[in-house]
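Sequence design from tokenized structure. All designs in this work follow the same two-part layout: the structure record, then the generated sequence. An example of the structure record is given first.
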């Protein structure tokens, strides 16, 4: 008898129990295929990266429908457990509950929702505001109660570090765990010492954000694992590398009127076809 397929949330939980899960950001389905090809166990969808790819800043302008479409494309392309950014839940409690249901239906393994006031800011910018802790806990409890499967991973992000310090961050984290969050994402921590302090004071699954050019010093995934983190996301790393190459290539074309010298920096056609699982002249099958 064929065994039922294990859910994405189940596979993510299994991976977290084995050790720290490194989840590179995928800003489209082709990048998600490359994440899988590179051997990672999960990938991440950043709301900021998705907004940037659509030409918007990271201030909560994307709709639930846009995010769900992106999730479906990346889940289908990668076949990996996908952790997806839900920003502030697209509104109040009812909106956040709907977002949780739609994310799970779209095939995501996990989502994270944050306690910033809408319109939100990037977590590594100053001037953030946060909602009352009890209001956020009520939102988390409602989202946890709406899960279709106990495997779906609900991650609560708190941006309290910049407003209430480490003490407030830990207090909120523990309240959010009590409300039903499976994991906590403490945003905007600066040093390895702070990250270590957090996991000691709030035991359980935790997510670390290793973004560049922000408030966090560079820490390796292995070091995060030793500190007790279950997931490390790299939300914009691949996009930043890609966009730097795009800018360099366009400047070269503008100056030289030819891209011949840039060929060594390009993905070859045959490598693109390999990544897509496509052989010209043969039927292409959808992944899965």
């Amino acid at each position: 008898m064929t065994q039922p397929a294990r859910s994405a949330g189940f596979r993510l939980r299994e991976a977290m129990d084995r050790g720290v899960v490194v989840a590179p950001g995928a800003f489209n389905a082709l990048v998600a295929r490359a994440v899988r090809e590179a051997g990672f166990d999960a990938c991440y969808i950043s709301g900021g990266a998705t907004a940037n790819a659509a030409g918007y800043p990271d201030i909560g302008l994307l709709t639930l429908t846009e995010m769900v479409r992106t999730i479906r494309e990346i889940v289908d392309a990668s076949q990996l457990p996908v952790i997806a950014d839900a920003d502030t839940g697209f509104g109040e409690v009812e909106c956040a509950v709907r977002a949780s249901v739609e994310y799970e239906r779209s095939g995501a393994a996990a989502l994270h929702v944050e306690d910033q006031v809408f319109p939100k800011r990037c977590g590594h910018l100053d001037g953030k505001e946060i909602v009352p802790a009890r209001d956020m806990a009520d939102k988390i409890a409602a989202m946890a109660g709406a899960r279709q499967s106990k495997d779906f991973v609900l991650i609560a992000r708190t941006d309290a570090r910049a407003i209430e310090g480490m003490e407030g961050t830990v207090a909120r984290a523990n309240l959010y765990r009590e409300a039903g969050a499976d994991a906590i994402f403490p945003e905007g921590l600066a040093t390895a010492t702070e990250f270590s302090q957090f996991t000691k004071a709030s035991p359980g699954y935790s997510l670390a954000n290793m973004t560049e050019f922000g408030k966090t010093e560079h820490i390796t995934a292995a070091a995060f694992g030793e500190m007790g983190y279950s997931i490390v996301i790299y939300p914009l790393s691949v996009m930043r590398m890609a966009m730097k190459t795009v800018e360099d290539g366009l400047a070269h074309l503008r100056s030289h009127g030819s891209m011949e010298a840039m060929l060594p920096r390009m993905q070859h056609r045959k490598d693109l076809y390999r990544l897509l699982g496509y052989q010209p002249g043969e039927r292409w099958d959808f992944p899965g």
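The radius of gyration is 19 Å. We note this feature because it recurs in several other targets discussed in the main text.
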